[in-house]
Amino acid sequence: MSLTLTAMSDSTASSGQQQWAGSGPMPQPPRGPYISVITNRTTNLLIRGVLLFSVGVFLALVLNLLQVQRNVTLFPPDVISSIFSSAWWVAPCCGTASAMIGLLYPCIDRRLGEPHKFKREWSSVMRCVAVFVGINHASAKVDFANNVQLSLTLAALSIGLWWTFDRSRSGFGLGVSIALLATLATQLLVYNGVFQYTSPDFLYIRSWLPCIFFAGVITMGNIGRQLALYEYKFTQEKTHQD
Amino acid sequence: MTLREQLREKISAAFYRHGLLCASYPVPIILFTSASILTCCYPLLRLPLPGTGPVEFTTGVRDYSVPSHEPQGDLGERPDWYRGLPVAYIQQVLVKAAVSPWDSSLVPVDVFRSPLGRVFNLVEEIRNHVHQDSSGVRSLETLCLQVSDLFPGLRRMQSVLPEHGCLLVSPGNYWQNQRELFDSDPDLLKTIQKHEPKGLHTSATLRDLLFGVPGKYSGVSHYNRKRVVTYTITVVLYRYDASFLGSLRSRLKQLYPSANCSLRDDHMVHVHFKEEIGIPELIPLVTTYIILFAYIYFSTRKIDMVKSKWGLALAAVVTVLSSLLMSVGLCTLFGLTPTLNGGEIFPYLVVVIGLENVLVLTKSVVSTPVDLEVKLRIAQGLSNESWSIMKNMATELCIILIGYFTLVPAIQEFCLFAVVGLVSDFFLQMFFFTTVLSIDIRRMELADLNRRLPAEAGLPPPKPGPLRPREVPPPPRPSPHTITLQTPAFRNLRLPKRLRVVYFLARTRLAQRIIMIGTVIWIGILVYTDPAGLRTYLAAQVSEQSPLGDPGGGGLPPHFGVAPVFHGRDPTSTLRVVHPAPQPTPLPENQSQGHHGAARAGPLPHSPPAIPQITWGAEDEEGWRRLSFRHWPSLFSYYNITLAKRYISILPVIPVTLHLSPQEAIETRHPQDTRHPPPPIPKVSADLQTDLTLYKVAALGLAAGVLLVLLLFCLYRVLCPRNYGQNGVAHGRRRRGDLPCDDYGYSPPVSEISPLLLRGHSMDIECLASDGMLLASCCLAGQIRVWDAQTGDCLTVIPNHGLHTQRDGLDSGAPELDYLGSEGHDPSISGDGLSEDEGYPLRRRTAPSRPTLFTDQPDLTPLIDTNFTLQPPSHLSTPPRGGFDFGGLVERRRPSLGDAAASLPQDRVSAVGPQATADWDSSVWAMELRGNLIAAGRSSGKLELWDAVEGSLRCSNEEGVSGITALAFLNNRLSEHKQSFCGGFSYVVVSGTPGRGSMPPSPCYSSEDVISCQLTRSVQCAHQKPITVLRAAAGRVVTGSQDHTVRVYRLEDSCCLFTLQGHSGGITSIYIDQTMVLASGGQDGAICLWDVLTGSRVSHVYGHRGDVTSLVCTTSCVISSGLDDLICIWDRSTGIKLYSIQQEVGCGASLGVISESLLVTGGQGCVSFWDLNFGDLLQTVYLGQSGDGQGVRQLLVLDNAAIVCDFGSELSLVYVPSVLEKLD
User: Fold this and answer.
1) Membrane-crossing residues (chain A) (predicted)?
2) Which domain, by its residues, includes B40?
């Protein structure tokens, strides 16, 4: 899982930066100290980025632990004793990737001009995160008869996640493309021997990996959109006041 | 009508009926629901409690056979884990050894050195034991569990734990099972201690593993009072061979007979270990739970508009949890035992079941019309959401069904649980939650009802106020809806919630008491459980006293256990041990306590203290029970064998009793043994000594404690004043009696608001004016002072005497004022730099930059109408009525910047009108401030315009005949003054034009601008009687007069739009604001609200006895104050009086509204802040130490959350940001 997000970071980094380079920060009239911090575009972006990064790091550590426990992924033995029994680069990569994705989603929404309005509340986001963790849990702990069944089940679950919490075409497209890119990157990583899977069934990796990637992208996008909602609200209020 | 709609209708109707039912019979339904929950949860009692503790199962030894793998039908209470081979069979050989008879020449080391030394023989014996029968020769090597390497992380244990061979552990492992190493070891205890882990440890230690008994029972220490050493030799067997074990047992018993041992050897115990959850496995679990709680939090946060938010949130959580429990219970009832780890899937189940329905229900019910009956509201809310609830439920069931057909066992099970959980959740939502909701809604309505009927209190009796000029006959007011609240005076002030909590805690001393009780309990537990503590001490005391009370055993040593008692009673045991039976025959229970050693030492009754007693009790039967339950898992884990979800079989122990002669003990001594430990002190004296030390320490501690307390007390008395902590007695201003106190006797915190006193006036302040940035005040002496409203600095003083404006604009291009500030008698101006600028206008021209003090002034450019000639066309034409009078142009120009100004001198000459001179003889009756212009109306009828910054007279107008009593800046360009007594008012145009161009160079009326003062229009006979009030806003001029009428004029053409009649007395106050709200109050105590657009009266209420002195409106209410010193708050739409506040005498008129819900009133030397919505006192700010009798008569609210009030001859500036914040 964690590796997945690494790949995502590679792929999304460039596009994300292009996106943000286009929209420069607008000068905002100063307000109260707190409000102005929130409404300041750059600061807001930074706060959101940091939040998403930490969420990504946390989820990566926890979910990777699940996989390592079940010996799904194998890291070289000398790093196993390091923090949370995985290589150090996994968590930051996942964090970066999730920050990118979380910032990319609201940005794309704005670009397309169709603000995401489906279930915009924190409880729904939490539900989404819980389901995502559950999908990871199932991939690591539930014993399936064969790999095809496992992959199909997880794919159905991921699509269900999208349908339940997202339902936007842009979200689906972005999720699929990032999942594919991430899978490709993981293949490359495994091919180069950075780490390995115990029982690869899809070239060098597990076949359920794209599903997990997809679910992760949807979840992160959901969080990112919810965070962006605050900025949106503030700007709206401001226009009202003005 | 389609099928779908029909279905929808039916569902809706069903829900409606159900809602009615639930709301009608709440109590029976809740009882029914609770009963069904309990019934469904009943099967859960049979489930094993969650936990990682091992489970035991006991079978007999004789008919033991290895259980088969296949589950066999019904095998009684045989647990389902008891299948197949165990991981291992554990055979323990329990050795109890003692040196007997004890000799006084022996040193403490002898207690355990020689007994431990015998372990090597025993191990050798066991290893070499061979059993031979018809089926062949079997040795231990063939049966035992062969282990390979130790786990890689345990290198340091390599020396003590066996590798590559039989798993057989004994204390001999400390010395690699070599007698030579043991003999040459100078300090045995050190060797044993060496391997102990440092710090706290909860799991089995190496010492426990090797000794096989808990460390304190082994008796290997210098302070072993019993002088019996206990240890085990643990043999781990892979296969069970009854005959081999039997022969080993008989052999050992034959060699080392334990005569009176009655340990049962016919039971073997199977111990099943559960999966241990390590920290790495716990982390994901904890994470899912955190997410779950976040989900629940964010969900329940959305519950709103109910009486008890927490109660409903709790009900929602209870609904979800009990539906889960019900699902598990039902599944168990129908034989589906959960194999999944319950803790892991639980959060996912909650997320699947969800709280959404509950929230939707709440929202729907809450949004129904409030005026309906509760039953109907519930029913309507339910039926509104019925379709979506059913649809969601069907969808979820479908998804779960699909999941069921994945045919993966785990997922199937999950789905099964989820289905049952969903159904039971639906049931609970419909019955439990709906009912709770109905109860809550009913409670809320009751609360609303209570709030509608606020506590009433009559008006306080009218006080014969000295300020009341006349007695107005109070109009007959039966007014049914004039409700007066209990004056929310200082006594029942509403404290913030957190303060109330703190006060509650402080009042009941709850925290201290809880901490105290907790400490006592903790100490008690500590004392009781401490191994060296009270319990053992008490036990020792009891056992010591019993022989003393027994005359037969008087000679027995006090430190022996219960054995001597039995010895006296049971002489038969001595007979038995003389001929030790090869097979221990089971003895009756009380005889099993007999001892063997004593019998052997029988010939030495004269030295009873020397006989160590070896007793075999029931507790030795299963000695491993006293070990940590992690003992066996950790032993096996060293060899990378997990016991999780598997079981081991523990065979009955083989007892071995060793008696060593003192001779042997002395022989096996290490030469250092005698040197190292000090000679054993006789027991009694040692006890005495420890006791003495204990007493000494206790006495010292007590003395130190007492000293400390005394010291602190002295410090407290020295450093703190006597009345420390008694609120405000030391402060002269705050008398305890009139302090706002709550019921508990706590006064609110001393306000952090400190008023800023502006001193300088010599007499009482007459007029106050402000525009937010500047503040102008005028005292009875006629002195006008301008203050900075932000900092409170005095900027300008315009004195009343000895000052005459001089006019020499032609020479220097600027009029020069003989400025008082240059004389240096005004402290606020000297050193400001401003006076210098004033004194040297030439320098100003070369350095046109303004003092930085005023750079933050507001942009007033739109205020100055530079294109003035276009504005009122009427002042060029003939007046429409005779009442208009056009005054001459009063204009005064000053050059603007530099050369440009200098090029226009000739224009200016022609423009100069009559000289502006201040009129010092008359007093100021009215004053206004806008920008940096002060308009002062004097009693002589002269209007003066002063520059507030420079203190220079800019222009004046002497059109008026009689004194000016009211002034208003209007629409930012017109100032109008009213001349009373003649019944008319007039406009005076004040225009500022810059020296050049149309754009003013500076953002406010600077000294370079041209100020002109021109009377544009006057309405001569506006009223029949003198005008008493004048207000202007929103393009209207409103005047109130003593002729009982209010007139509304249009500003542009002075056209009288309406004459509002309704008062039965003179008008005393008028309020109008930009939103065209017009309220008027009269001498009859009546308040009228008018519609300015139509001129109709909206409402008319009588509120005061006597004049209405001031009126303020907010969006929701009208606040009025009267001569009766009462402040009344009215609902604006209905005209109902919400409540009233009794003011102090003479302060009735001082009130202001800071924000929509914050009212400030003046009092005797203080100002009070009130919450407008509730009428509660928020805070009282005392203005100064002195001046008790001085009331706040005028009060002005500035824009920047500050208020200004007069306070005798001083001004007080109070910032109230904190109050605002609290309110927001």
Assistant:
1) 45-66, 86-105, 148-165, 172-191, 203-223
2) 3-50+282-450+503-527
Residue whose C-alpha is closest to residue B349's, from B414, B274, B269: B414
User: How high is the ipTM of this complex?
Assistant: 0.76
pLDDT per residue over B220-269, tens digit each?
Answer: 777 777 778 888 888 888 888 888 888 888 888 888 887 777 777 778 88
CB pairs under 8 A between A and B: 72
Residue to mutate among B288, B289, B320, B341, with most A CBs inside 10 A, is B288
The answer to whether residue B1190 sits within a structural domain is: no
Q: Where are the domains of chain A?
A: 37-64+87-240
Residues B652, B673: Cα–Cα separation, whole Å: 36
**Helices marked H in B879-920 — which ranges?**
898-902, 905-911
Q: What is the pTM of this model?
A: 0.45
Q: Which of A78, A65, A67, A60 is nearest to B280 (CA)?
A: A65
Q: Which sign does the torsion angle of CA B1135, B1138, B1143, B1147 carry?
A: negative
Instruction: Give pLDDT tens digits for B510-565.
Output: 777 888 888 888 888 777 665 555 555 566 555 554 444 334 333 333 343 333 33
Contact B291 A156 (CB under 8 A): no
Give the residue from B511, B527, B543 where a domain finishes.
B527
Q: A185: distance to nearest CA of chain B, Å? A: 26
> How far is Cα B912 from Cα B892, in angstroms, rounded to an integer?
6
Answer yes or no: do B304 and B353 share one domain. Answer: yes
Kindly determine whether residue B291 and residue A121, on different chains, have CB atoms separated by under 8 Å. no
Quick check: helix, strand or coil at residue B299?
helix
Nearest residue in A to B286, CA atom:
A62
Number of domains, chain B: 2
The reply to whether residue A133 touches residue B408, judged by beta carbons under 8 angstroms, is no
B292, B273: one domain: no
User: Quick check: is B1221 in a domain?
Assistant: no
Q: How far apart, in Å, are the Cα atoms of B65 and each of B62, B68, B690?
A: 9, 9, 56
Pair B1200, B790: CB distance under 8 Å: yes
CB contact under 8 A, A142 and B411: yes
Give the distance from residue A133's alpha carbon to the nearest chain B alpha carbon, in angstroms. 7
Asked if residue B309 and residue B263 are part of one domain, the reply reads no
DSSP secondary structure string for all residues of chain A: -HHHHHHHHHHHHHHHHHHHHHSPPPP----SHHHHHHH-HHHHHHHHHHHHHHHHHHHHHHHHHHHHHTTSEE--HHHHTSGGGS-TTHHHHHHHHHHHHHHHHHHHHHHHT----TT-SHHHHHHHHHHHHHHHHHHHHS--SSHHHHHHHHHHHHHHHHHHHT--HHHHHHHHHHHHHHHHHHHHHHHTTS-EESS--BTTB-TTHHHHHHHHHHHHHHHHHHHHHHHHHHHHHHHHH-
| CA distance to partner chain A, nearest, from residue B1201 (Å) | 15
Q: Which residue of A has its CA nearest to B300?
A: A123
| B233, B221 Cβ separation under 8 angstroms | no
